[in-house]
Amino acid sequence: MKKITIAIDGFSSCGKSTMAKDLAREIGYIYIDSGAMYRAVTLYSIRNGIFDGDTIDIEKLKKAMKDIKISFRLNPQTGRPDTFLNNVNVEKEIRTMEVSSKVSPISTLDFVRHEMVAQQQAMGKEKGIVMDGRDIGTTVFPNAELKVFVTASPEIRAQRRYDELKAKGEEACFEDILKNVKQRDEIDQNRAVSPLRKAEDALLLDNTNLTIEQQKEWLMQQFQSVADNDKTIA
Ligand SMILES: Nc1ncnc2c1ncn2[C@@H]1O[C@H](COP(=O)(O)OP(=O)(O)OP(=O)(O)O)[C@@H](O)[C@H]1O
Ligand SMILES: Nc1ccn([C@@H]2O[C@H](COP(=O)(O)O)[C@@H](O)[C@H]2O)c(=O)n1
């Protein structure tokens, strides 16, 4: 039986990784959170003096790219891959507000995107992959057999992120999160290289009023319908 490529794109914090990870687990595919890779480059940049305030030292980052090694390893406790930067688990560190506030400018840089896209395409060479991000259906895997574009209102997305942080016992400010969500959407949609766009052949999912369970079922149905049309897919 053959495996396919599944691309899940959309706005920040709308539930892409939640649904992508669940589908991948259910159908036995690899799951890759491409946003984690841009976050890892950002964390490296913060830690290595590549930022001066909000200004990025482009030449320094260009030279440093060869020293940034990103990998994923399955965390048996969470059932999802943790992100490793130069062999150190940085899953928690890449999710801070500091990284969230600096990641979109880093993601506008053509040489960063070029390197990330090459690595993502290598990971998906054998298919059997569910990858979520911003440009997966448009740039990374334009021939993906199933493409989904997810959206929800900024307020709902910020609320979900706020609830998640509170549930973990972490400090959170709803207004800061909302501002960050809107800022990232703006930068991601308007950058010159691979801006956030719905691929023409992507299915649109507005999950504003859906539960996690409902969106999971919806995605599984879309996978089933692709598989029903081609009985060689599993
Ligand atoms: N339909 C839903 N209803 C309520 N909460 C949801 C729903 N989908 C996802 N969530 C919650 O919203 C938060 C953000 O989800 P998730 O991390 O999957 O988003 P994302 O799109 O991958 O975000 P990012 O762009 O930051 O990678 C999580 O706490 C998740 O549990
Ligand atoms: N394919 C992608 C994925 C992500 N980005 C950028 O990274 C930021 C963080 O991503 P999350 O999925 O963790 O929210 C995101 O805001 C984008 O700037 C990207 O450019 N391309």
Automatic annotation (TrEMBL):
Catalytic activity: dCMP + ATP = dCDP + ADP; CMP + ATP = CDP + ADP
Transmembrane segments: none
Alphabetical UniProt keywords: ATP-binding, Cytoplasm, Kinase, Nucleotide-binding, Transferase
UniProt subcellular location: Cytoplasm
Gene3D superfamilies tied to this protein: P-loop containing nucleotide triphosphate hydrolases (3.40.50.300)
Enzyme Commission number, as recorded: 2.7.4.25
Pfam families (alphabetical): Cytidylate_kin
Annotated residues for binding of ATP: 10-18
GO molecular-function term, one example from the UniProt record: ATP binding
Gene Ontology CC annotations of this record: cytosol
Every Cytidylate kinase domain range: 6-224
Recorded superkingdom: Bacteria
Any Gene Ontology biological process: nucleobase-containing small molecule interconversion
Any coiled-coil regions, as ranges: none
Family designation: Belongs to the cytidylate kinase family. Type 1 subfamily.
Protein name, entry field: Cytidylate kinase
Recorded name of the encoding gene: cmk
